[in-house]
Structure formats: C-alpha cells, structure tokens
Amino acid sequence: MTVLSRRGAGAVLALGAAAWLSTFVFDRVGTGAGTRVALVSSWQEGIGLTVLAFLVVLLGKAMVERGLEGAGGEKAIPGTLLLPIGALAVLALPYLPFAADAVPALDALAGPGRWWVWAVVGVQVAWAIGTLVVDAGRRLELQGRTSQALVVVAGIAIFGTAAWRLQLTPVFPSGDEPHYLIVTQSLLTDHDLAIENNHTRGDYHAYFPASLKPDYRRRGSDGRIYSIHPVGLSVLVAPAFAVGGYRAASLFLAVLAAIATAIAWRWARAECASGAAACFGWLAVVTSVPYVLHSFSIFPECAAALALIAGLRPRDRLTSSRPLTDAMLRGVALGLLPWLGTKYAPMSLVALALVWWANRERGAAIVSPYAACVTLWFGFFWWIYGTPSPMAPYGPAPQMALTNLASGLPGLFADQEYGLFATAPVLALAVVGWWRLWRRDAAGRRTMLTTLLPFGALAITTGAFELWWGGTAPPGRELVAALPLLAVPLAWAWESSEHAPVQRASLEWLAAVGIAIVCTLVFVHDGLLAANTRDGASTLLEYLDPARSLVRAAPSFVVDRASLAGPALLTLLWVAVAAAGWRIAAMFGVSTRGAAQLAASSLGAAGLLVVAIAAPAVARGETTLPVAVESRVSAEVLDRYDERARPVAVVYTPFQIMRPQGALSDVVFAAEPGVRTAPQPTRVMFNTRLSLPAGRYRIVATPAAASTLAGDLGVQVGRRGPPLVVWPLSPGSTTAEFALDLDASFVGFVAAPDVESRIARLDLTPLVVVDAGRRAPRPAVIAATRDNGLTLYFHDDRTYVEADGFWTKGHTTVDLTLARSDPSRPASAGVRLRIQGNRQTETPVTLVTPAWSTHLTIPPGEPVDVTVPWRIDVPILPVAISVESGFVPAQQGGDPGDVRSLGCFVQVIGPGEPTVAAHAEVR
C-alpha cells in the first residue's frame, strides 16, 4: 500500500485548506472603502475537500511512480516535489485581521486572483513532474524534423483553442480586422482593390454584424476609395478566405504563427544545445497574451513575425546545402515586411543589414530580391496615389513624431492596458538573456545583436506613432512581429541559470503567471477582458479588483501623455523591485527543485506586496480614484449568498461572527449624479445599472437640496419594456420595496427628468436574498412586468410589452417565466391566459411548460382562454409560447406605420383551475 511521507501529508493538508478557503465568499460592504466580510463554508465541506486532496495526491503519486518506472528511472519520488504547494498559503492573507485593510490589493486573492494562484502552483508542480519523468527517460532532447513538427502542432493547438473560444464574439473580429478582410473580398469578387462598392453591398456582414464604413483618409488618383490598411495581409489570406471565409483565413494565420515560433524553437535549441531551454523559450512566447490573441486575428503581426524570423534564422545543415537559394529566400522574406505594414520597413532594413553582414559572400543574392520587393512596394503607392510615398494613404495628418516616444516607448512595454510586459511578464527577462549572451562569447554577441536590434527598431518606430497602442486591438500589438525573437534570449536565460535554481524557478514562475493571464483572457467573458478602452484602467485589473487598488499600482501612459511623472515613477518602482528580486534569487542556496520553486513563489509574492504598499506614494493623481463600494454594479456577497453552503459570516470592522442574514443590512448600492458616466442600453437614472440576485430589496430616495420629492419613480428590470413597479414619491413616501423572483443582470431606476432633478441619491439595500442553490436557473431577464398578481419575466427580445398584455413576434417562440408576486392572493393550481391572434386568419399557437403542453388554433378576431396548470407549491413557472404564423398590422387596416410582424396577443386573466382541451397534449 502506498504511504505518503510527512511532506506528502503536509501537501494534502495545504491543498485541503486552500481548496476550502477558495470556496469562501469575500466582499466589502458599507460605503466608501467598505468593511470586509467573509461568508465561510461549512466545516464539513472543508473535511470533504481535504479527503479529495488526499485521493488526488495519492493517485498522482502512483501515476508518477509508474511513469518513472517505465522511463527506467528511480521509482521513488522526491518529497520536495510538492513543496510549491506551500505557496497556496497566500490565499489566507485576505481573511487575516487587518491585512487586507492595510493592503487593499490583497482583496484580489479572495476574488478571481485566487485561481491565478492555483494555476501558477499547478504549472510549477506539472513542470517539476514532467521534467522528472523526461529526465529519467532522456526524451527531451528531440532531434530532426519530427520534433519541429510536434512544436508546430502544439502551437496550432494552442492558437486554435483560443480561436475556437473567441472567434465571432464581440471582440473578434473587431478593430481593423474587418477592414483587412473587405480588401480580400474586393480582390476575390471584383478583382480590384477599391472597396466602396463592397461596403455599399455589405459584403462584410458575412463575418461582422455591425455597420462598417470605409477606412480611408484620401482617395486614390483615380478618385476611388482604397483602404488605408496595408494590402499585403489581404492578399496573403485571400486563398484561405476563398476556401472557408473568415474562419479559414484565421486558421491559416494561426498556422503561420505556429511555424514562426517553431523556427524560434529550432534557433533556441541550436543556441543553447538544450531541448529543455528551447521548450521554455518557445513556451514563454506561445503562451504570451499578445502572441496568442494575435495568432488567429486578422492582423499582419504574426505573418510579419514569420517573415522576420525566416529572414534572420541562423544557417543550419539544410540551408547550408543550398546557400544561394537560402540567401534569396531570406531577401524575399525581409522584402515582404513593408507590404505587411509600413511600420515594418525600418525593422526590415535593420534585419537586412544583419543578414547581409552574416552572409557577406552572398550579399547580392540577399539584397537583390529585397530591393525588388521594396521597389514594387513604392511602385504600388505610385500606381494608387500618384506618389511613391508610403505615407500617401494617411493624407496630410502626421502619423509619427519623435515627441511621441516619451509616452509611446515606455507605454509599449509597461502600460497596464496595452504594454507587452503587463500581460506577459516573463518576456521582460529577455533582457537577462541578452546580457548573458553578450558576456558569453563572440557567437553569443552576434545572437544578441541579431535578436535585439530588429526588436529595438520596431519598438522605436511604433513608439513614435500617435496611436502607439495599435488602436482597437489586444495588448502588445505593435511588438508582436518581433516576439518570436525573444524565445532565444529567454531560452539562454533559463539555460544559464542552471547553477542559480531560484532564478530558473523565477523564470518558470513568471511564465506560469503569463499562462494564468492568457487563460483568463481567453476563457472569461468571451475575451472582453482584453478589450481595453484607453481610459487608463486595465479591464483585466478591474476584473481582479473592482476597487481599483491594482489599477492604481500599475502605470498608464495613455490618458495624460503630457504628465508622465506618475507612470514613470511607477514603472521605475516595478523595475527596482524586479531587479532586487532577481538579485536576491541569485543568493538563495537551495538544493532541490521544489524548494527553488517555493522560494520563487515567495519572492514573487513579496515583490508584488512591496509594490502594492509603495505604489500609493507615487499614485498618479485623480485619474484612478478608488471606486466607492456603494457605486459598484454587483456584490459578490449577494451573488453567491447561500446560508446552507456558507452558514457563517465574519465581519471584520468591528470584528463579529454572525449568521449571513445579519451581514446583508450592510450591503448598499447607491445611485448618484456623475458617478457613472457610461450610457446604458436604455435610459436609467444617473446611468445606474445594477445586477441583483433573486430576493427582496428596499429603495430610499434622498431629495436634492431645496427640493421636494414629487412624481413617480420606477424600477426597470431588463433593458426593454415598462418598469416592473412604480410608486409615487412625496415628502412622506421616500421608501419602497420590491421583489425579484429571478436573478436580474439589469436593474435600474426610471423617472421623468423633472422628477430625477429632485433626487440627490437613491440607496438600495437587500432585505432577503434567495440562496444561490435555490435560485431558478433561467436565462437572462430582458424585460419584466406585472399583471393580475403575477410577475412576467421575458428572456428574449421577441415580445412587445403593452399595458394590458404583450404581443409575440410572428413565426417565433417566446421564452418567459411566470411568478406569483402577490402573497395576499391565494395560490391556485393554474393561471388563465387569454390569447388573441390574427383578425383575418387562424393563428396556430403552442404553449409548453416543463410538465404540460397544448396546441391551440385561435379563430380570426376571437380570443381563446386557456388555463395553464401550475402546482401550488412551485413559485415560478417557465412557459414557452410558439406562434407558427404572423401578420403586419399596417397590412390589415391597422396603424399605417405599424410594420411589426406580430404573432399573438397574450393577457393574464387571473388564477384558474387546470382544464385539458381535446386538442391538448399532457406530458
């Protein structure tokens, strides 16, 4: 029988405790900075999770031992292998008295950040176990084309997964992507580059639902409209688009991105003479947010990455056998870069000079095809615009200025929204690899210059742009083309840290953080966390910490580019902490991989803690003020409220232990003028939209100075339809209550403008919240109304709600939920509906509930009453209404302006006893 060692037992306890902590609910309640509150899971759940952790460790131990035995290595597993699990202890920090109050950024560890901690520890343990098994079998030093093919396949798998998850979402395609594809469509359908007729026809609707105007600054010399965007990418993806449209073009670019990183892997393996080092450098690039999110998007970045690294790659046995062909292909590859983007022209010249110097004996074979490509490039602008200037498409507006480098150059790397290192921190340690390559030998210096100079040329060129962040695009766009080059110095940084195990583990730790970031952006909220809005606050950091403590600790170079002292000081703070941590890592004298990984995690956590503490001293003024707790949209303590699963609440100021119901009174949502500026889908007071779970709530209205409350105030549930409840305001009536039977992601307040001007503030507090485990799992609420003692919740936009009922659209199915909203009325075993259809022809209607269905034929112009069975002990009833026909009122003598396609009109008459018609089918 397998027995766990003491370290194994400790790992089990640590895993169980961390898993238990991860089920807690942490939030801040009250006003201002708020008071911490934690909803604690039951002790039985903690014991169960610990038992599960024991089984996981036991099973994992058995599997690894079997793998070691099969590889011919030692069967025993080092007990230190599980030491990285000790890093899970940081999950307890937000729950300690005073800790999170002193450092509010710790709140993130009790929110989504806790899954980052789990991900980092999981990657560390997996890396350690994988290395142990591979070292036993000596399998990592792969050779030949097979190994490179595996690297390509792995890259395609990573990029394909991201594409599958994010394609045809609100984020992809967006920005410049449809503009590149519209040129492709013009080439395929019209055999030209003019795009005005393609926009007029709406060709882009095949992949982009919104309206799209031509993106141009000046017309061509023939008076026609040509896209401002470089034509190279549109031509490149044309064959793939012709075969399979947008998705095929996206997959084709993902394949190119994977090939580029495979070349980088081959280069790193040759430079380091280590497959493990090459794999690390490759992994750091292919899992970086900028490269993953651009790998499948319709941008020229990854195609340019392939052209650049194909031109710069070192000679090997294959290329040395055909030197002239190799030289010409390098020239062509580098010559194609300007076609993919004018911004790549300076980088291509730097790369050409490097390749020419390394291959001087075949310099003409390199320069000639490059010169031909560039000459044709200039000729293209002469043909279209009558001038050879590559700046012709942009018109008279200046695109570049050296003064932009003051914000653009540091912003490319450190900006919290668009900076390269903000979402891929391990790439910053390419600097270490470059330094060590320079100090190694002459060959190392050559490699250092070959990878650094093109990267630097691209950074300087794009940093001088007015829009150095790349417009509407994922983070790090402007530097993606040179990212595969970083795999080489990163691989050497890892390889040269063989005798500094904590430094090597720190590299791996940063790579694991990058993997956690990219997984969050790909799998959470359909990629919307990567869609920043140039407001100086990273969407990702706001997701981790809605109170913006993390936002205030990270630099932003976007908002106020005239005042850079704040972001510059914050950047220097991060650099100083990182440099100190790297230096300390070199001083650790650990002897095992597990200890090195735990030390790296400890250093990383300590460094982040130092930045969080020191950042307020160099805060950037008023651009990122803390978000008051009462001004948020939702509250975690309400969304995950469940007295059965979490029976204990801990309030920290003053410290109290109570039942969860007692903590609800401290939750406040406030609506005030000027706090929320973003417009909502429908007009609501003060732009306040809340997301509330099922429960009962109280609203308190506070009058404005020298004003008297008067008029009607309503609660809008859903973005369509009338208010759910309306009550008259007066000096003696400033408070009202309302109930939600379902979770509602859109709750706002509505009033006439003159009434709104009399209100200074609205406060909403929960009275009762339904346990999360007892809430009905229904779709999002789009509209809600009350009728005859019932509340109707509509889950789609296929209805028109009126005062005495609602119309369904024709030829469609409507999904709604009925709820008993009047407790004073006795519950009946059914609800009676009156249905009216087309005035001229019969209307077939089908009603379906989870336990019953019926088909009705509504005579022309005559209503039909039907009683829908509804168990007395069931509070809500899902109903689907399908209409197989439709009519337009304007065509049947109605309002000439009413061109809606209508199905049937439904009214709630009241309670009724269930009856079964002859044509009804009961299930």
C-alpha termini separation: 53 Å
Q: DSSP strand (E) fraction?
A: 15-25%
Mean pLDDT: 89
Query: What is the count of helical runs?
Result: 29
Total E-strand runs: 24
CA-based gyration radius: 32 Å
Which ranges are low-confidence, i.e. pLDDT below 50, for 5 or more consecutive residues? 916-923
Give the helix/strand class: alpha+beta
**Strand arrangement across the biggest beta sheet:** 13-14-17-22-19-20-24
Give me some keywords for this one.
923 residues, alpha+beta, seven-stranded antiparallel β-sheet, five-stranded antiparallel β-sheet, 16% strand, globular, disordered C terminus
Secondary structure elements and pairings:
Elements: H1 6-22, E1 25-29, E2 35-40, H2 43-71, H3 99-102, H4 113-137, H5 144-166, H6 177-189, H7 196-201, H8 231-236, H9 238-272, H10 275-286, H11 289-295, H12 301-312, H13 317-320, H14 323-340, H15 345-358, H16 363-385, H17 405-414, H18 420-423, H19 430-440, H20 442-463, H21 487-495, H22 501-523, H23 539-544, H24 549-552, H25 565-587, H26 593-614, H27 636-639, E3 648-652, E4 655-658, H28 660-663, E5 669-671, E6 690-692, E7 695-703, E8 711-717, E9 725-729, E10 735-740, E11 744-750, H29 753-756, E12 759-769, E13 783-787, E14 790-794, E15 799-802, E16 805-809, E17 812-820, E18 830-836, E19 843-849, E20 852-858, E21 864-869, E22 876-883, E23 902-911, E24 920-921
Antiparallel strand pairs: 1-2, 2-3, 3-4, 5-12, 6-11, 7-10, 7-12, 8-9, 8-11, 13-14, 14-17, 15-16, 16-23, 17-22, 18-21, 18-23, 19-20, 19-22, 20-24
Helix pairs in contact: 1-2, 2-4, 4-22, 5-9, 6-9, 9-10, 9-12, 9-21, 10-21, 12-14, 14-15, 14-16, 15-16, 15-20, 17-20, 19-20, 19-21, 22-26, 25-26
